[in-house]
């Protein structure tokens, strides 16, 4: 996959937006533990950045996913990775199923204002006892007349304290766990929706994360996305996009960490020469840059396959697994060469180190990615027994 001039122009626009609207506030938002989502998303919506690959009839640009990928990659240059994650929830985690499977009425009510930046969206999948194991979630949506009555709770919900609506995965029947779930759009101001607490995190601190309870929350059944019982399948589709986003979003950030470290070590002297002049340091920078380029190739290949309508679960899982591990390696290696300054909270490389840790957990832990990859290879224990 090769970016065209149109892709490059989009990336330049995103870079300008990041430099003027995000980076100047990075330290403040990090310190406050939250950023003004409605204010920032409205600015992004006005520039058409929240619906790049969404249908034009609902305010999107109607472009293919490679443009969304270019947007994601450019957004990764920000000094505040929390914002990239929060935006990704809005564009590539909470809304893809709605855009693809939702009724026109539902897309008018929830998707259009999300693309415009008037609504902030969040995704309700993980629970205290069901993180990567999505099939075991306990939240229920029981039919009562024309409504669903929802009970349960969600955990680690990005954008949760500011969201206008949640794309909620809940059990809508007592059937088989992969066929008893539905995705439902739930307005957060509905009676019975309670933000239990704002969570305190190790990293991604500028992004608000909530624990949410649902106590007899009543919403019309027309708020269901697509077919009843297809929620698990729809969410697996959303995960595929989320994992591509998670991988692409790290590329420029890792390159930034490498470039920062090269500059810092070139100007830092020890034992009569610059730290960068030590072979172990400049060889490490070359090795890390090579690995980032290899990941970029994997991400581009997966994205090209996705646009072509191919099944890319395997490649997306590999990209996400690699991104999580490489982001940890890059930030850890770079921080080491910053010495004591790297250990200071005020240091940007320190924030990168803390923020990078989430990628191997969120959107499916490394171990889940490995299981998916093994399944694709046909080497899980149960699969081998059938050969």
TrEMBL record:
Which family does the entry's similarity section mention? Belongs to the acyl-CoA dehydrogenase family.
Amino-acid biosynthesis listed as a keyword? no
Where in this chain does the record put each Acyl-CoA dehydrogenase/oxidase C-terminal domain? 229-377
Q: Where is the Acyl-CoA dehydrogenase/oxidase N-terminal domain?
A: 4-118
Recorded GO terms, molecular function?
acyl-CoA dehydrogenase activity; flavin adenine dinucleotide binding
Instruction: Please list the residue ranges annotated as the Acyl-CoA oxidase/dehydrogenase middle domain.
Output: 122-217
Specify the protein name: Citronellyl-CoA dehydrogenase
Q: Which residues cross the membrane?
A: none
The scientific name of the source species is: Chelatococcus reniformis
């Amino acid at each position: 996959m090769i970016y065209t001039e149109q892709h490059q122009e989009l990336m330049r626009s995103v870079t300008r937006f990041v430099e003027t609207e995000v980076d100047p506030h990075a330290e403040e938002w990090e310190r406050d533990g939250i950023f003004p989502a409605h204010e920032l998303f409205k600015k992004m919506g006005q520039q058409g950045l929240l619906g790049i690959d969404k249908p034009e009839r609902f305010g999107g640009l109607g472009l293919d996913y490679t443009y969304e990928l270019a947007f994601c990659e450019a957004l990764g240059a920000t000094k505040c990775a929390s914002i990239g994650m929060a935006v990704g929830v809005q564009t590539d985690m909470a809304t893809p199923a709605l855009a693809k499977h939702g009724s026109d009425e539902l897309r008018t009510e929830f998707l259009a204002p999300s693309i415009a930046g008037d609504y902030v969206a969040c995704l309700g999948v993980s629970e205290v006892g069901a993180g990567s194991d999505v099939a075991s979630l306990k939240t229920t949506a029981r039919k009562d007349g024309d409504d669903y009555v929802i009970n349960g709770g969600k955990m680690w919900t990005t954008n949760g304290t500011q969201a206008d609506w949640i794309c909620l995965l809940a059990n809508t029947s007592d059937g088989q766990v992969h066929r008893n779930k539905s995705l439902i759009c739930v307005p957060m101001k509905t009676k019975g929706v309670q933000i239990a607490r704002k969570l305190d995190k190790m990293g991604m601190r500028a992004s608000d994360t909530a624990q949410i309870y649902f106590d007899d929350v009543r919403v019309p059944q027309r708020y269901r996305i697509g077919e009843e019982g297809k929620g698990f399948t729809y969410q697996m589709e959303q995960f595929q996009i989320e994992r591509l986003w998670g991988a692409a979003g790290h590329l420029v950030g890792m390159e930034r960490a490498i470039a920062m470290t090269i500059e810092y070590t070139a100007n830092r002297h020890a034992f009569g020469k610059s730290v960068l002049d030590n072979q172990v340091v400049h060889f490490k920078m070359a090795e890390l840059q090579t690995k980032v380029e290899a990941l970029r190739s994997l991400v581009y290949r997966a994205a090209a396959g996705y646009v072509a309508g191919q099944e890319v679960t395997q490649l997306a899982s590999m990209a996400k697994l690699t991104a999580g591990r490489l982001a940890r390696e890059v930030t850890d290696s770079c921080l080491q060469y910053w010495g004591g300054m790297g250990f200071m909270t005020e240091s940007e490389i320190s924030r990168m180190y803390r923020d990078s840790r989430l990628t191997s957990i969120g959107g499916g832990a490394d171990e889940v990615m490995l299981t998916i990859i093994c399944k694709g290879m046909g080497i899980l224990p149960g699969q081998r027994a059938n050969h």
